[in-house]
């Protein structure tokens, strides 16, 4: 019972040296990189005046004081459902984009992709393009190599420190923290966070790169499960490109003549000239039709390897859909460039829906893009996304500056006083979300049968300082013999009114009588 | 030799495992993954050296860093006590009736007192302070010995009818089973019932009123309104410590009651006594 492995159990990473590429998608990705990195690095430095008692940072996650500030919005811990709602929207948005456009998140906006792209930019700038980097990779570790490598690592490290540094600025006042960081007065948590994020940025962006996508990240599997034949994704038109070959430009005229002859001979054979679409990772290409073996006819692919050389994942898109592909579209740019040079139409590698394959193979026009995008699935995702979004907006706009929560004390459910009156106790939390000190007046419905008193106060007024919550013990009493006192439960509503702003808020609760005692 | 299978499409050897016809490929793992595994093993060994880990016959290895959850808790308690030192000093010095005039100190005292109460008092008075039969409800407005803050504090400090503290509240109700005829007890019970209940035997209650005036009014007062100087309960109100039904009242009269509360002066810190008094005072019945 022995097995002799003919290949090792563990494989070393094959280094990838993506070549620089120019084109529409590359330019689009530069813009996205500039915008996303710009948002990430600059947001903590935006200011927003909220008055004297509140921080003036536009976006601030104030963990110590349990507040989240976003421009004019201030979220308290009990309003965390806003964050939950945003996460649901982010999830639905991912479903929508993935079902419509495949792994666009991976290819364009995932931090792993963006930072790796930035690190590759630095790498190219210091060590040169693909061929120079390949040579350097194979070269001995001499002074030249050390100098280039160390320069590259230092620049990477600076980017990584800036990345970790920018993160902590979201959690406290950025200018103050920067000063504290530089004078070594900042909290250890800030340094530890920066150190961890520096390390992950440096290692993930510089060395692990595609390994993160292939082995660590769960999204590719989840996203792949959300794609269907109508999803627009990056694919190779093998029916146009195959059989590939170096000489297909030179031989075109001969091929055309030959093709005409063959078509005349084998009338009805039609589109059987081309090989079928290879499966992912197919070992041997499908056999070519016999009639093709002897011809000069070649597909549009000249096997120049441009699409492979620019790929940051190190795959060959011509092999078909692969789990490594992040649909960064750089192979489209590379191939379009080559097609332009050899006088062929662009789009041998292109964004296309796999459901169009039979039509395109038969020479018909593919369905228009919008018909792939507008499907019940995507419409449903959009509708759900909008529903959650509008719900959150509605919740945001009906928020009051004052709020109360009522926790009836249920241990015991009621207290009998010496004169036989029945009292219920409520722990009421009064929130003043404005930037000024306010006085709240408590009151209740059904004043004719129930009396309200506040613990430790002769009046019904509760002063609540700016941006705080005050816990007030509230007593509601029913007279002995009253139906509320002798009955089971009575509904009531506790009101709170801001005397200066004329704003009211209320909460419904119940009053427990002695019931079936 | 086991038979080795190869996946037709990819040409990769399979593990032989198959789910719904989908076979598991046997691709090599990335080597950095292996190194990460080794690294975590080394980290794990280092961790068990640095921190308490290996079980021994008594206890466990203590770890070279000397880390201990108990020591951490003790340090955290000390740290918080240090932070609260100023408030504690103010609480110990404050004139208790004036406590509510300092809202911050009052809030601190009530919060601290709540913790003290739940640890030390809830066993008898209940975690919600609603009491139980024989253990007074601290939420209502009825007090045996007095409900102002200073009296509550005195009660907490010295207790009731205990043999430990000479200053404890003390009084003793005689067991009237040795003194009164059973018929008289029935009569006086009916009289007490008549004070707070609409349904009673008027003739019997009238007879009981005489018994009451002769035997009970000395402590409970002529109108049975009670007397806080000796902890004699008000018998005319709606609140009963042991129960207000005739059978319970009969028991009480016949055999007496002798509720005991220990003194907390020797057990609690001064700040805790003051805090728990402030807490009890804040529950709804404070006078």
TrEMBL record, chain A:
It holds the Pfam family Fer4_5. InterPro entries: 4Fe4S_Fe-S-bd (IPR017896), 4Fe4S_Fe_S_CS (IPR017900), Cyt_c_oxidase_cbb3_FixG (IPR014116), Electron_Trans/Redox (IPR051684), FixG_C (IPR032879), Ig-like_fold (IPR013783). Gene3D superfamilies: Immunoglobulins. The chain crosses the membrane at residues 28-46, 80-97, 153-170, 190-208, 379-397. The keyword Cell cycle does not apply. Keywords: 4Fe-4S, Electron transport, Iron, Iron-sulfur, Membrane, Metal-binding, Transmembrane, Transmembrane helix, Transport. The keyword Iron-sulfur applies. Residues 291-320 form the 4Fe-4S ferredoxin-type domain. This is Cytochrome c oxidase accessory protein CcoG. It comes from Pseudosulfitobacter koreensis. The lineage of its organism: Bacteria, Pseudomonadati, Pseudomonadota, Alphaproteobacteria, Rhodobacterales.
TrEMBL record, chain B:
C-type cytochrome. Part of the cbb3-type cytochrome c oxidase complex. It is found in: Cell inner membrane. Belongs to the CcoP / FixP family. Binds 2 heme C groups per subunit. The chain crosses the membrane at residues 32-54. The gene is ccoP. This is Cbb3-type cytochrome c oxidase subunit. Its main location: membrane.
């Amino acid at each position: 019972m022995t097995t002799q492995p003919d290949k090792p159990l563990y494989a070393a990473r094959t280094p990838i040296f993506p070549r620089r590429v120019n084109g529409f998608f590359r330019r689009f990705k530069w813009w996205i990189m500039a915008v996303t990195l710009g948002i990430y690095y600059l947001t903590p430095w935006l200011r927003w005046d909220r008055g004297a008692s509140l921080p003036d940072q536009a976006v601030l996650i104030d963990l110590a004081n349990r507040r989240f500030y976003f421009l004019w919005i201030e979220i308290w811990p009990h309003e965390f459902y806003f964050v939950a709602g945003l996460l649901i929207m982010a999830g639905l948005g991912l479903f929508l984009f993935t079902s419509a456009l495949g792994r666009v998140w991976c290819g364009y906006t995932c931090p792993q992709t963006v930072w790796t792209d930035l690190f590759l930019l630095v790498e190219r700038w210091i060590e040169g393009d693909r061929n120079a980097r390949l040579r350097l990779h194979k070269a001995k570790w001499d002074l030249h190599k050390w100098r280039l490598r160390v320069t590259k690592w230092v620049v990477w490290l600076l980017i990584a420190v800036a990345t970790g540094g920018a993160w902590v600025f979201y959690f406290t006042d950025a200018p103050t923290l920067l000063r504290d960081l530089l004078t070594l007065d900042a909290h250890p948590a800030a340094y530890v966070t920066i150190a961890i994020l520096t390390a992950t940025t440096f290692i993930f962006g510089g060395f692990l790169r595609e390994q993160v996508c292939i082995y660590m990240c769960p999204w590719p599997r989840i996203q792949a499960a959300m794609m269907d034949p109508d999803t627009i994704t990056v694919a190779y038109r093998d029916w146009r490109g195959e059989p590939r070959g170096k000489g297909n430009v030179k031989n075109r005229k001969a091929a055309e003549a030959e093709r005409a002859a063959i078509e005349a001979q084998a009338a009805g054979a039609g589109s059987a000239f081309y090989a079928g679409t290879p499966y992912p990772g197919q070992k041997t290409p499908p056999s070519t039709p016999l009639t093709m073996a002897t011809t000069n006819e070649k597909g549009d692919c000249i096997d120049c390897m441009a699409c492979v050389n620019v790929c940051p994942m190190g795959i060959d898109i011509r092999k078909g859909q692969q789990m490594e592909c992040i649909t960064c579209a750089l192979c489209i740019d590379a191939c379009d460039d080559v097609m332009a040079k050899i006088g062929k139409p662009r789009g041998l590698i292109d964004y296309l829906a796999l459901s169009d394959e039979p039509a395109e193979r038969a020479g018909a026009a593919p369905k228009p893009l919008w018909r792939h995008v507008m499907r019940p699935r995507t419409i449903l995702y959009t509708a759900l996304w909008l529903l959650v979004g509008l719900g959150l907006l509605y919740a945001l706009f009906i928020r009051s500056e004052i709020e109360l929560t009522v926790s009836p004390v249920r241990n015991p459910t009621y207290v009998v006083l010496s004169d036989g009156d029945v009292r219920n106790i409520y722990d009421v939390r009064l929130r003043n979300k404005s930037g000024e000190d306010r006085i709240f007046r408590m009151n209740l419905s059904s004043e004719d049968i129930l009396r309200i008193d506040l613990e430790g106060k002769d009046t019904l007024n509760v002063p609540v300082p700016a941006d705080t919550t005050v816990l007030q013990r509230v007593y509601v009493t029913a007279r002995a013999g009253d139906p509320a006192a002798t009955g089971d439960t009575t509904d009531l509503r506790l009101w709170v009114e801001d005397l200066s702003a004329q704003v009211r808020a209320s909460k419904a609760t119940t009053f427990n009588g002695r019931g079936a005692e | 030799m086991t038979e080795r299978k190869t996946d037709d499409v990819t040409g990769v050897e399979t593990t032989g495992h198959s789910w719904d016809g989908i076979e598991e490929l046997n691709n090599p793992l990335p080597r950095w993954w292996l190194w990460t595994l080794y690294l975590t093993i080394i980290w794990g060994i280092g961790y068990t050296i640095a921190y308490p880990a290996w079980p021994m016959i008594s206890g466990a290895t203590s770890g070279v860093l000397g880390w201990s959850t108990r020591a951490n808790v003790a340090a955290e308690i000390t740290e918080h006590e240090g932070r609260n030192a100023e408030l504690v000093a103010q609480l110990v010095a404050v004139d208790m009736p004036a406590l509510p005039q300092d809202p911050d100190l009052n809030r601190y005292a009530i919060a601290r007192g709540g913790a003290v109460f739940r640890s030390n008092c809830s066993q008898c008075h209940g975690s919600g302070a609603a009491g139980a039969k024989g253990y007074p409800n601290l939420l209502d407005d009825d007090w045996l010995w007095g409900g102002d803050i200073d009296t509550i504090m005195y009660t907490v400090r010295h207790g009731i009818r205990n043999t430990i503290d000479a200053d404890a509240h003390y009084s003793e109700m005689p067991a009237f089973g040795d003194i009164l005829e059973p018929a008289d007890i029935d009569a006086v019970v009916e009289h007490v019932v008549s004070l707070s209940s609409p349904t009673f035997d008027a003739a019997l209650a009238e007879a009981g009123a005489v018994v009451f005036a002769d035997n009970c009014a000395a402590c409970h007062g002529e109108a049975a309104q009670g007397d806080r100087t000796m902890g004699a309960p008000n018998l005319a109100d709606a609140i009963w410590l042991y129960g207000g039904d005739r059978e319970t009242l009969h028991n009480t009269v016949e055999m007496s009651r002798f509720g005991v509360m220990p003194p907390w002066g020797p057990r609690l810190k001064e700040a805790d006594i003051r805090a728990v008094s402030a807490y009890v005072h804040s529950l709804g019945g404070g006078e």
